[in-house]
Amino acid sequence: MKLQGTAMINEKGHLSIGGCDTVELVQKHGSPLYVMDETFLRDNCRAYYQAFSASGNGEVIYASKAFMNLAMCRVIEEEGLGLDVVSGGELYTARRAGFPMEKVYFHGNNKTDAELQQAIEYGIGHIVLDNHYEMERLNNIAGRAGRTVKVLLRITPGIECHTHEFIRTGQIDSKFGFPLPTGQAMEAIQAVVECNNLIYDGLHCHIGSQIFELESFRYAAEVMMNFIEEIHQKTGAVTSILNLGGGFGIRYTESDEPADINDYARTVLGAVQGEAEKRGLTIPKVVVEPGRSIAGPTGTTLYTIGSVKEIHGVRKYVAVDGGMNDNPRPALYGSRYEAMIANKAEQAAEEVVSITGKCCESGDMLIWDVSLPKAESGDILAVSSTGAYNYTMSMNYNRIGRPAVVFVRDGQSAVVVERESLDDLIRNDRIPPYLQR
């Protein structure tokens, strides 16, 4: 497992993160345990801010679906980033954290009336329209509230990138956005500029996730700038914002080779500026939405190893006290991870094993065929790059409680999400009168 951020091997031969011994973290907070390296997290935010926002023509908004809670909202605000939300729950969390609502963008392909009303009531900066049905409803809701709302239109530009089919969203056949190649995107632009209560402010596109080829982002920028020119020619509307979404890839295993954030910024900003100058257009503000690439590498999940089962000549299974409940990505996407035994961090690998979770599900496999020192019951297994889409996608299958989340920094740990208790699991259960006794 590659050490990232503040991770290191301490004098005890244990994995340390944020100056905290991971074995001691499990003793103190229990396992499974999500550990977020706060210094690393802030460094990633600052790298994006310097690469995009410092230029004066860019804005970075954190995609909160990757990892969100009250503490995370505070970190994002302190680092000068905006926020992308996709539900009333994420929006409510941001408001409760005191996040500035004018820096919030609201996404989603099927926002409810209640969520749209909530967004208007909170006074958020922009709503990203995904379809005509939503456009009409938002215009009516805003009118009844006596408000005008700044909107972006989500466009599917017809770009297919090399990533998993479930996280590839820029192609025409997608549940998201107005298709560009079919002419429906232009029809949507013509419709929105006629809405009395909506202010057209720009475009959004997102071509997919876990992308390593910068050429994909450059091409998306060129396609969208071509559309911006067409919009101006046919409607006279000025596109002030071009939101190019997220999707910047991170390292999960040694086969992943992420690009540099500064190269990413130069590619995107340069493409937009060049296309604007070539076409005689005002350069729009370029917005990007990193989520995974900010939070993902900063997270490590700690597990306690339980049973070890060897099928001679076939495979050795090492079971941990978590699994698909706290990381469903391997089951959903076939995602791959690296791991180490945290209390044997200095020891050389001597066997190949497969890491299985504790759920009553044969698909509950976290890692197939990983090289480790001899794994024994009671060892602490650390799985890296679990900061994105792990806590936020966790669940209660088999009535297993979600793990706690801690931030670590300067030798201190702080709980930012409490571990779910058994009482938490039945908090919303109700027994109907005819079953009561």
From TrEMBL:
<feature type="binding site">
    <location>
        <position position="292"/>
    </location>
    <ligand>
        <name>substrate</name>
    </ligand>
</feature>
<dbReference type="Pfam" id="PF00278">
    <property type="entry name" value="Orn_DAP_Arg_deC"/>
</dbReference>
<feature type="binding site">
    <location>
        <position position="361"/>
    </location>
    <ligand>
        <name>substrate</name>
    </ligand>
</feature>
<keyword id="KW-0456">Lyase</keyword>
<feature type="binding site">
    <location>
        <begin position="289"/>
        <end position="292"/>
    </location>
    <ligand>
        <name>pyridoxal 5'-phosphate</name>
    </ligand>
</feature>
<feature type="domain" description="Orn/DAP/Arg decarboxylase 2 C-terminal">
    <location>
        <begin position="37"/>
        <end position="387"/>
    </location>
</feature>
<dbReference type="InterPro" id="IPR009006">
    <property type="entry name" value="Ala_racemase/Decarboxylase_C"/>
</dbReference>
<keyword id="KW-0663">Pyridoxal phosphate</keyword>
<feature type="active site" description="Proton donor">
    <location>
        <position position="360"/>
    </location>
</feature>
<feature type="binding site">
    <location>
        <position position="329"/>
    </location>
    <ligand>
        <name>substrate</name>
    </ligand>
</feature>
<dbReference type="GO" id="GO:0030170">
    <property type="term" value="F:pyridoxal phosphate binding"/>
</dbReference>
<feature type="binding site">
    <location>
        <position position="389"/>
    </location>
    <ligand>
        <name>pyridoxal 5'-phosphate</name>
    </ligand>
</feature>
<comment type="similarity">
    <text>Belongs to the Orn/Lys/Arg decarboxylase class-II family. LysA subfamily.</text>
</comment>
<feature type="binding site">
    <location>
        <position position="389"/>
    </location>
    <ligand>
        <name>substrate</name>
    </ligand>
</feature>
<dbReference type="Pfam" id="PF02784">
    <property type="entry name" value="Orn_Arg_deC_N"/>
</dbReference>
<comment type="subunit">
    <text>Homodimer.</text>
</comment>
<dbReference type="InterPro" id="IPR029066">
    <property type="entry name" value="PLP-binding_barrel"/>
</dbReference>
<comment type="pathway">
    <text>Amino-acid biosynthesis; L-lysine biosynthesis via DAP pathway; L-lysine from DL-2,6-diaminopimelate: step 1/1.</text>
</comment>
<keyword id="KW-0457">Lysine biosynthesis</keyword>
<feature type="binding site">
    <location>
        <position position="333"/>
    </location>
    <ligand>
        <name>substrate</name>
    </ligand>
</feature>
<feature type="binding site">
    <location>
        <position position="247"/>
    </location>
    <ligand>
        <name>pyridoxal 5'-phosphate</name>
    </ligand>
</feature>
<protein>
    <recommendedName>
        <fullName>Diaminopimelate decarboxylase</fullName>
        <ecNumber>4.1.1.20</ecNumber>
    </recommendedName>
</protein>
<dbReference type="InterPro" id="IPR002986">
    <property type="entry name" value="DAP_deCOOHase_LysA"/>
</dbReference>
<comment type="function">
    <text>Specifically catalyzes the decarboxylation of meso-diaminopimelate (meso-DAP) to L-lysine.</text>
</comment>
<keyword id="KW-0028">Amino-acid biosynthesis</keyword>
<feature type="domain" description="Orn/DAP/Arg decarboxylase 2 N-terminal">
    <location>
        <begin position="44"/>
        <end position="295"/>
    </location>
</feature>
<dbReference type="InterPro" id="IPR022644">
    <property type="entry name" value="De-COase2_N"/>
</dbReference>
<dbReference type="InterPro" id="IPR000183">
    <property type="entry name" value="Orn/DAP/Arg_de-COase"/>
</dbReference>
<dbReference type="InterPro" id="IPR022643">
    <property type="entry name" value="De-COase2_C"/>
</dbReference>
<feature type="modified residue" description="N6-(pyridoxal phosphate)lysine">
    <location>
        <position position="65"/>
    </location>
</feature>
<dbReference type="GO" id="GO:0008836">
    <property type="term" value="F:diaminopimelate decarboxylase activity"/>
</dbReference>
<keyword id="KW-0210">Decarboxylase</keyword>
<dbReference type="GO" id="GO:0009089">
    <property type="term" value="P:lysine biosynthetic process via diaminopimelate"/>
</dbReference>
